[in-house]
Structure formats: structure tokens, C-alpha cells
Amino acid sequence: MENRDKVLADNRPTFDKKPVICKPWHKDIVDFKDEVKVVPIWIHLKHLDLKFWGNRSLGKIVSSIGEFIQADQATINRDKLQFVRVQVEVALSQDLPDCVKFQDEHGILKTIKVGYEWKPIVCEHCKLLGHLAVDCRKKKGKKVWVAKTNQTIQPVTRDSVVQDTGDGDEGFVQAINTFQIRQESISPVVVANSFQMLQDNGGNIEDTIDSGVTALDDGGGLPPDSNG
Predict the structure, then answer these.
(1) In a domain, 145, yes or no
(2) Could you list the residue ranges that cross the membrane (predicted)?
């Protein structure tokens, strides 16, 4: 139990530069969604003199932003001189400044720019972290019924509208909204009739039957055999 409390008090883990909030568990716990009011974040104090890199001085400098928690190991070892990396605890409802001001031991006003690795985003609707009110899933949209309008269709006429250009083009006119009507050509159907020759030469056929002789290709013919 003591080790658990020590880990929760000393260790403040982060994921993707965002704080991971850990709380003790017990068997009677019902709701894990406790209201969060403060969160730890990492900030950068840019171009700060080395003489102010101690924890006591850093705590006074960042007091206008939040409560000082710790400085990272690179700041303690003086490995990165471009900025000081400090973890502070801030309230979700406060505004985070872009710079901090303080007076040094000589009364000279110093202005230090502040950079934030991550800023907490609070939804104004559900009061939860991580999204804005416009993206809140718990916000119910209001449905408004709108009457559907019927779209009128303009009929197309086949009459061509001819407009005179008036440019004196010797009788030439400009056709507007014209289109061509495709006409399909109908081919005549030839019907062959095997009895047509009988109709055309009916009289000659009768004479031929009476005489018993059929003329073939301007040639002669013989009477049919008596056996058929």
C-alpha cells in the first residue's frame, strides 16, 4: 500500500506528450470517471540564464503558470542550454500565457517566452478533455423539417427559333436552339412470287397447255410422253 501511494505521488507518466492520470483502486469503487480539474504538463522556458536553473528559482518563475513539480533530467544535467524543460500542474479552467515576467536580483525586469508541449482542450458542453464542443458526441443536434420542393422540368420544343443578327450579312441568319431530327430511310422489301410468271403470261400458258408444247429459252419442245 505504501509503495502504491509512493508511485502515484512521485511518478507522473505521459503518453504522446499527454499526461496519464492514475488513481488508486479499491473494491468499492463504482465510477472511474472522476472530475478532473488539474493536469500536469511540460513547458519550455526559452533563453533563461543558467543562474535561474535551480528548482527554487524555477518554482518562483513558473508560479504565474502553475505549481512547480519537477525539472527534467537534461535540465538538471545542463545538457540542453536552449531552454529549460519544467513540469507544472495547471488548472483546466485557466488561460496559459505565452511569456512570464519577473525581476532579477538587480531589479531588472526579465521576459521569458514559454512553449507548451501540449495544452489541455476542454469541451464546453460535456466538460471532458480531448475535444471541442463542435466535435462533442454527447451534443444532440436539433432536427428541422424542411418541405421538399418539386423541380419543374422545362419541355423541349422542336420548333427552331431563328434570330436575325442584324449585322448586314446579306441575308444570313443565326439559328438558336436548333437540333436535327434524324430520319431513318426505309428500304423497299422485295417479295419474290413463283406464280408471278403465271399471272404475267396467263394467256400464253393456256395456249401452250392446249397445244401440249412448252417453249424453253426460245427453243423447241416435244409433246409429253403418253406414259406421263
Answers:
(1) no
(2) none
Helix (H, G, I), strand (E, B), or coil: what is residue 73?
helix
Q: How far, rounded to the nearest angstrom, does the alpha carbon of residue 127 sit from its chain's CA centroid?
A: 28
C-alpha to C-alpha distance for 145 and 115, rounded to whole angstroms: 48
Question: 80-106: per-residue pLDDT in tens?
Answer: 888 999 999 999 888 899 999 999 889
Q: Is residue 65 part of a domain?
A: yes
Nearest to 113 by CA among 43, 60, 174: 43
| pTM tops 0.70 | no
Which residue stretches of the chain have pLDDT < 70? 10-11, 31-34, 140-144, 151-228
Per the document, the length of the chain is 228
Separation CA 35–CA 161 (nearest Å): 76
Beta-strand runs (E) in the chain: 14-15, 18-19, 38-46, 67-71, 83-91, 99-103, 109-116, 161-163, 174-176
Report residue 109 as a C-alpha cell.
525586469
Q: Are 83 and 44 in contact (CB under 8 A)?
A: yes
The total number of structural domains in the chain stands at: 1
DSSP single-letter state for residue 76: H
Q: Domain for residue 108, yes or no?
A: yes
Is residue 164 in a domain?
A: no
Please choose, from the candidates 38, 142, 58, the residue with its C-alpha nearest in 3D space to the C-alpha of residue 102. Answer: 58
Q: Please state, in angstroms and rounded to a whole number, the distance separating the CA atoms of residues 196 and 176.
A: 54
- Give CA–CA dist 133/43, Å, rounded: 26
